[in-house]
């Protein structure tokens, strides 16, 4: 048989096998090489070689990455991660580990507590205290000379055990400032005395000239 007929026959035979049934391109040694648009290429190492399979969803420990040429199943970085959104952000951990901010931990960090398979912040459940007084209305460190400024206030948790690691809540509002900065009364008196002294000095100079 001509070589092109042999190639065509071998391709048809490979395509009908279980390994190559969902592939666009298939290799006898490496399985799927190219997948249809909606499937993901999953490469599984077999000794020194890799074997490809086209899947609808990626298996545990892998995440789906869509590409222009082909979609792929890529491995999560952490071995303790069962499902991940990206290489470094885990969404579900394996048994015996707790999920906290995309990481799989053997124990929950300080300020958190285990809840099912996650670590939750104590601050989410802690009761909040009263708001502090509003701060002085300022803008760029000045309390006057502008039309509007800002002032803020804070509050923490009412539980003494959580106060040390729970962040303060803060809110800011706009406030009205005095457009003109008027000096205190003492300074105004000094300024007036200075003006009087200057006037008297001018009069004395004029008298001396005549």
TrEMBL record:
**Which part of the chain is the R-spondin Fu-CRD domain?**
20-116
From the Swiss-Prot or TrEMBL record, what is one GO molecular function term?
heparin binding
Q: For this UniProt entry, what's an example GO CC term?
A: extracellular region
Q: Say which domain of life the source belongs to.
A: Eukaryota
- What main location does UniProt list? secreted
Q: Keywords for this entry?
A: Disulfide bond, Glycoprotein, Heparin-binding, Secreted, Sensory transduction, Signal, Wnt signaling pathway
BP GO terms, sorted: Wnt signaling pathway
Q: Gene3D superfamilies, from UniProt? A: Hormone Receptor, Insulin-like Growth Factor Receptor 1, Chain A, domain 2
| Signal peptide per UniProt | 1-19
InterPro entries registered for this protein in UniProt: Furin_repeat, Growth_fac_rcpt_cys_sf, R-spondin, Rspo_Fu-CRD_dom, TSP1_rpt
The compartments listed are:
Secreted
Which family is this sequence assigned to?
Belongs to the R-spondin family.
Q: Which PANTHER family match?
A: NEUROHYPOPHYSIAL HORMONES, N-TERMINAL DOMAIN CONTAINING PROTEIN (PTHR46987), R-SPONDIN-4 (PTHR46987:SF6)
> What protein is this chain from?
R-spondin Fu-CRD domain-containing protein
Q: Which organism is it from?
A: Periophthalmus magnuspinnatus
The organism's taxonomic lineage, starting at the top: Eukaryota, Metazoa, Chordata, Craniata, Vertebrata
